[in-house]
Design goal:
The chain is about 30% helix and about 20% strand. It is an alpha/beta fold. A hairpin with a 2-residue loop joins strand 1 and strand 2. Helix 3 crosses helix 4.
Amino acid sequence: MSSPLVNVTLTVNGKTYTRKVPASLPLVDFLHEEISLTGTKFGCGIGVCRACTVAACRTPQAHAVPTLACSTPVGELNGQTLTTVEGLAGPSGPNPLQQAFLDEFAFQCGYCTPGFLMATTLLMERLRARPIPVDQLDTAIQDACGSHICRCTGYARYYAAIRKVILGTPGLISR
């Protein structure tokens, strides 16, 4: 039995897309096949590895939340605003987090990198709204990224890069 077709409108990285797609179409397939954004990776397909993490805002006033693109039907996201890894860099190049990943040689194959970038971006947004003491930083990083799987086992370098950029960004750590 095929999934019914639904009209879906999503704003992705600041651009609005409307398509008629199967309601059960996974978001990652929508991103790849309908709007040619291939930075979000399909890993395990069951939401365990988190390589497919994107940021979704249910309403314009809401904070973005991590959303697993491999296991979230695009029909459930109608009207939402999404940010994918392609939306992180600016016109002049990588953002400070992406640059920290490069500087710390944080990834090997890079397959899981989009998920780590999105999880950390969401962590930094939470810290902007509610800074934490420095002694809680490692726990916050673990809470945000601890469930992400890196098959190359690059966790120490990822965490060093994340720590470096958070400590270097004003307003994220309370004094």
